[in-house]
Amino acid sequence: MKCLYYHNGQSGNNKIEKKKDYIVSRLKTKFERVDCFDNSTRLLMLEKLKANEKEYDAIIFSGGDGTVNNMINDLKDLKNPPILGYIPSGTVNDFAKNLGLNKNVKKSLDAILCGKNQSYDCFKVGEELGIYVCGTGIFTTASYKANHEEKKKFGKFAYYAKSIKELFTKEAYEVLITKEDGTQIKAKSILTLLINSKSVAGYKFNKKANLHDGKMELVCVKQEKDKLTFKSLLTIIKMFLFGIKSVLKNKNIKYFKFEKLKISFNNPQTINLD
User: Fold this and answer.
1) Are 37 and 66 within 8 A, CB to CB?
2) What pLDDT band is residue 25 in, cutting at 50, 70 and 90?
3) pLDDT (tens digit, 9 = 90+) per residue, 215-250?
4) pLDDT more than 70, % of the chain
5) Measuring CA to CA, which residue among 220, 236, 224 is closest to residue 269?
6) d(C-alpha 15, C-alpha 258), whole Å
7) Which of 31, 55, 127, 233 has a C-alpha 20 to 30 A away from that of 4?
């Protein structure tokens, strides 16, 4: 059996780089050959995978939520993609929480080498695949604005610092949501999330979420004013601290499950897709 190991050196604080030899040695207890790639050889890795889909029996990779998203999209056109194994080493690692994993490399490797294969829902936005969340509005661009050095030094607090700046600048937008049956919802929103996850931004957003039912959840925080209101801010804070169920009775919260959805905005919006 052959294995490919890929590490994203731009994720988290890079402490896992020091454990590369240990990771490879553990993988060699199951795989007769382990080929290693990183950011500098990523294109070569993709060329090898596309040239011969049967080259590897498994792809093991380490990184954060963005790395998971990139890997899924890199492999989406393969007819018979290899089995994936994940070692979380990012800043927040929401996807890993869904799998019951943490940053303990030994435990992650134990799951890869001794655990059972499992399927997991993913979703499509345009031509891109997502694995756990797609959002637009306040706080959703923080992960893009925080650079590698800031994340390395401050961890997830680098995201919080970027989010605070949006409290005074982010504006609400008009959103039109069209369900599969043709029903439409038109609202002014400050935050819209499409979720297939128990954890979002490091918080237990919906601990009872079903990640294998072929459905996602939409959460839309409505408000009438252009700038973020104090009431909306409190609602968002409560939603993340205590979970989505804590705000379902709020008239400014729109929530439902779906399989297919169309969303349009009155002006261009930055989308966070992971």
Assistant:
1) no
2) very high
3) 999 999 999 999 999 999 999 999 999 999 999 999
4) 88
5) 220
6) 39
7) 127
> Mind giving me the DSSP string for the chain?
-EEEEEE-TTSTT-GGGGGHHHHHHHHTTT-SEEEEEEGGGHHHHHHHHHH-TTS-SEEEEEE-HHHHHHHHHHHTT-SSPPEEEEEE-SSS-HHHHHTT--S-HHHHHHHHHHS-------EEETTEEESSEEEEETTTTHHHHS-HHHHHHHTTHHHHHHHHHHTTT-B-EEEEEEETTS-EEEEEEEEEEEE--S-BTTB-S-TT--TTSS-EEEEEEE-SSSBPPHHHHHHHHHHHHH-GGGGTT-TTEEEEEES-EEEEESS----EE-
Q: 158: which 2 tokens?
A: 């680098």
Backbone angles phi, psi at 84, to 5 degrees: -105, 145
In angstroms and rounded to an integer, the radius of gyration of the C-alpha atoms of the chain is 20
| pLDDT score of 157 | 46
In whole angstroms, give the CA distance from residue 261 to residue 246.
24
Q: Hey, what are 94's tokens?
A: 């929401």
Q: What is the pLDDT of residues 57-87, one digit of tens each?
A: 999 999 999 899 999 999 988 888 889 999 9
Report which of residues 227 and 163 the model is more confident about.
227
User: What span, in angstroms and rounded, lies between the C-alpha atoms of 42 and 243?
Assistant: 37
Task: Select from 27, 74, 32, 26 the least CA-distant residue to 49.
Answer: 74
